[in-house]
């Protein structure tokens, strides 16, 4: 099912489709967060011998590609807004149907708002959308073992750690290992966002939780 475009909102946190006119705000957030984001950013591996090196896409090329993939039903490319300001990006990619019905989620956020619950709220909203509206069965997040802030996001939400994928993605100039975290629809019948709100209300938002 393709419900794109869609906007998801919970309090001060909004997920909405990325737009060409977001370029100035998107670039400003990226510029301020270069050192914070660089160790976790995807890079292009070296080309085969004799082949020309691939070029990173421009912002406009990136957005046009994301929008085309979204309209084809393979991706949900969001920006994250917090209190009306663009503070990050969240993308649901690799949407697969048939016997798998799964997708994976990637994200980044402005260091200035880290620790305020923005990213767990955004991930919880999009997981509920994937399970309840799209009808997916499994959502996966792959994270470098060294990326402790990103790991805390999924651990707070109760994602299961499933194991290590050696040299899984080309990140920060080399092939890097990634830990796999996942949830299936049966594990959050009450909705992930609601569970996240209850955990915060009970004072447990800083305690990692894992479903057994």
From TrEMBL:
Identify the species of origin: Streptomyces cinnamoneus
Claim: Transferase is one of the keywords in the record: yes
**Keyword RNA-binding included in the entry's annotation:** no
Q: Name one GO cellular component term.
A: cytoplasm
Q: Which keywords does this Swiss-Prot/TrEMBL entry list?
A: Acyltransferase, Transferase
GO molecular function per UniProt: protein-N-terminal-alanine acetyltransferase activity
The signal sequence is: none
UniProt name for this protein: GNAT family N-acetyltransferase
Q: Which residues belong to any copy of the N-acetyltransferase domain?
A: 13-186
What protein family is recorded? Answer: Belongs to the acetyltransferase family. RimJ subfamily.
């Amino acid at each position: 099912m393709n419900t794109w475009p869609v906007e998801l909102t919970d309090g001060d946190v909004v997920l909405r489709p990325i737009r060409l006119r977001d370029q100035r705000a998107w670039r400003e957030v990226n510029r301020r967060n270069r050192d914070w984001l660089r160790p976790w950013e995807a890079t292009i591996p070296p080309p085969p011998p004799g082949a020309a090196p691939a070029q990173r896409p421009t912002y406009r090329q990136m957005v046009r590609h994301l929008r085309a993939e979204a309209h084809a039903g393979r991706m949900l490319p969001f920006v994250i807004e917090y209190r009306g300001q663009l503070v990050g990006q969240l993308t649901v990619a690799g949407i697969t149907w048939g016997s798998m019905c799964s997708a994976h989620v990637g994200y980044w956020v402005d260091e200035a708002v880290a620790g305020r619950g923005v990213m767990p709220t955004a991930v919880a909203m999009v997981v509920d959308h994937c399970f309840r509206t799209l009808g997916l069965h499994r959502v996966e997040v792959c994270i470098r073992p060294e990326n402790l802030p990103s790991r805390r996001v999924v651990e707070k939400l109760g994602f299961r750690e499933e194991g290590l994928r050696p040299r899984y993605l080309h990140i920060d100039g080399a092939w890097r290992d990634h830990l796999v975290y996942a949830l299936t629809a049966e594990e959050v019948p009450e909705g992930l966002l609601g569970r996240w709100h209850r955990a915060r209300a009970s004072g447990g938002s800083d305690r990692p939780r894992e479903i057994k």
